[in-house]
C-alpha cells in the first residue's frame, strides 16, 4: 500500500514540476511577445494558460484521491495540503501571464518595446516560480527561503520600471503605451508574490509552520 502511495506522490511531484514549467514558459513568452512585437507569442500564452488550468484540475483530483484513499500521516498530509495551495497560486500566475498577453493583443502592439527592467522582472519572477517548485520536490527549505528573499528583488525592479516609464512620458512618448507597461510590470510583481506564496507553502510542507498560523 505504501509503495503505491509513494508512486502517487512521485506522480504529484512530476505534475507540479510540469505545471511550474508551463508557468515559467508563459511568463517568458508574454514578455518576449512585448519585446519582439510578436502577436503569435501572445496568443501562445493564452493557450498555455488553458493548459495550466487543465493540469490544475488533474493535480487537484490526484491530491483528493491521496487524501481520501490513502489516509496519509502528518508529513504526507502537509505535503498534499501544500500542493493544493500551490496549484492555486500557479493557476493565478498563468492568469497573470495571460493578462499580459491580452494587454499586448488589445493594444495591437506589433513593434518591439524595449524596457530592459521588464525583461529583468520576467526573468527574476520566472526563476522564483521554478525554484519554489523545485524546493517542494526536493524538500529544500533553504531554496524555498531564497525564493522568499528574491521577492524583494522583483519589488525593486518594479520601482525601476516605474521610473523608466516616467522617463518615457517626460520624453513625449505615448502615454497609453506607458500605462500598459506599468500594468504589465504590476502583473509581473504579482507573479513574484505568488511565487513567494508557493515558497511559504513549501516551508509549511517541510516544517509544519506557515506564516500567520500555529504549528501543525
UniProtKB/TrEMBL annotation:
SUPFAM superfamilies: PhoU-like. Its main location: cytoplasm. The keyword Amino-acid biosynthesis does not apply. InterPro entries: PhoU, PhoU-like_sf, PhoU_dom. Keywords: Cytoplasm, Phosphate transport, Transport. Belongs to the PhoU family. This is Phosphate-specific transport system accessory protein PhoU.
Amino acid at each position: 500500500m505504501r509503495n503505491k502511495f509513494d508512486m502517487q506522490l512521485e506522480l504529484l511531484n512530476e505534475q507540479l514540476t510540469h505545471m511550474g514549467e508551463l508557468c515559467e514558459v508563459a511568463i517568458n513568452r508574454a514578455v518576449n511577445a512585448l519585446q519582439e512585437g510578436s502577436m503569435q507569442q501572445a496568443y501562445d500564452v493564452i493557450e498555455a494558460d488553458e493548459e495550466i488550468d487543465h493540469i490544475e484540475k488533474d493535480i487537484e483530483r490526484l491530491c483528493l484521491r491521496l487524501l481520501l484513499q490513502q489516509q496519509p500521516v502528518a508529513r504526507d498530509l502537509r505535503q498534499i495540503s501544500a500542493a493544493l495551495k500551490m496549484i492555486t497560486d500557479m493557476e493565478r500566475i498563468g492568469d497573470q501571464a495571460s493578462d499580459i498577453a491580452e494587454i499586448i493583443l488589445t493594444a495591437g502592439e506589433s513593434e518591439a518595446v524595449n524596457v530592459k527592467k521588464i525583461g529583468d522582472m520576467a526573468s527574476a519572477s520566472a526563476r522564483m516560480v521554478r525554484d519554489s517548485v523545485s524546493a517542494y520536490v526536493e524538500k529544500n527549505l533553504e531554496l524555498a527561503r531564497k525564493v522568499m528573499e528574491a521577492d524583494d528583488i522583483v519589488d525593486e525592479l518594479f520601482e525601476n520600471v516605474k521610473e523608466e516609464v516616467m522617463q518615457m512620458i517626460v520624453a513625449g512618448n505615448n502615454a497609453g503605451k506607458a500605462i500598459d507597461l506599468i500594468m504589465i510590470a504590476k502583473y509581473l510583481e504579482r507573479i513574484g508574490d505568488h511565487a513567494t506564496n508557493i515558497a511559504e507553502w513549501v516551508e509549511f510542507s517541510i516544517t509544519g509552520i506557515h506564516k500567520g498560523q500555529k504549528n501543525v
